[in-house]
Amino acid sequence: MTIILDGRETAKKITEKLRLEVEKLDVKPTLAVIIIGCNPASKVYVKNKEKKALEIGFNSIVIELDENITKDELEKIIKELNEDKNVNGILLQLPLPKHLNEKDFLDLIDPKKDVDGFSSYNSGKLLKNDSPYAIPCTPKGIIRLLDEYNIDIEGRVSTVIGRSNIVGKPVSILLLNRNSTVIMTHTKTKNLEHFTKSADILICAAGKKEMIKKEMIKENAVIIDVGITRDIDGRLKGDVDFDNTKDKASYITPVPGGIGPMTIAMLMENTYELYKIQKGIK
Ligand code: GUN
Questions:
Q1: 137-260 topology per CATH
Q2: 191-220 pLDDT, tens per residue?
Q3: Which ligand 1 atom lies nearest to the CA of residue 137?
């Protein structure tokens, strides 16, 4: 029988626990989110992040900036947030407008306030399996969901589709750090099906609607779907054809209600963990 990995319920347990911890604090953690321009998907993501932060009892700052902001202006804002003792976590919503180079700004964020774990410092620490201050939220949420359902990682073959800095690369490293045998695939991979069929755990982060069909997966595979595409009828779809594959999988995440809520829960957890590091709380 196939088990649906309930990200919504798991995320709720994590955020409820955080809410109870935050209730006991005199000074509440503060998450600052910078959003540039008016990318509709980014706007929805940022709204959801703010809503969850406020529900938990965090302070939330959302800085909305014009599409045409200059490099110097953005640099100044990030530096001010780094210096601000009341701000514990800084998130720069991606993608940035074309004239701004992502990595220049991600590396300006103080690693101790880098809630996404995207700075070179934290990515390097992750690569070395050496305690980064924060681990990227979606990859961390994937591993947490697997752990929550006691799904073995060690020694199993994990195939990752997609090599983005946000999901594909960091989740591959996390799986490797947990002694999985990791296969990284991407748009230039030839014979993708060969690698997806080898997977005990298949992580799909390609952003291609319902590309994974039952012929492409192994019997009893664990299927994690990170993709979110809006259908013409407005419904959200993943990279995996859920109805077509679910009976062949042992575990599968739904879209929506799988990795999405886990990502937000991990962002909240990272904010609280950075707060504790900054306050010297164990
Ligand atoms: N854009 C899409 N996903 C993310 C994320 O996890 N963090 C940031 N900063 N931007 C994103």
A1: Rossmann fold (3.40.50)
A2: 999 999 999 999 999 999 999 999 999 999
A3: 6
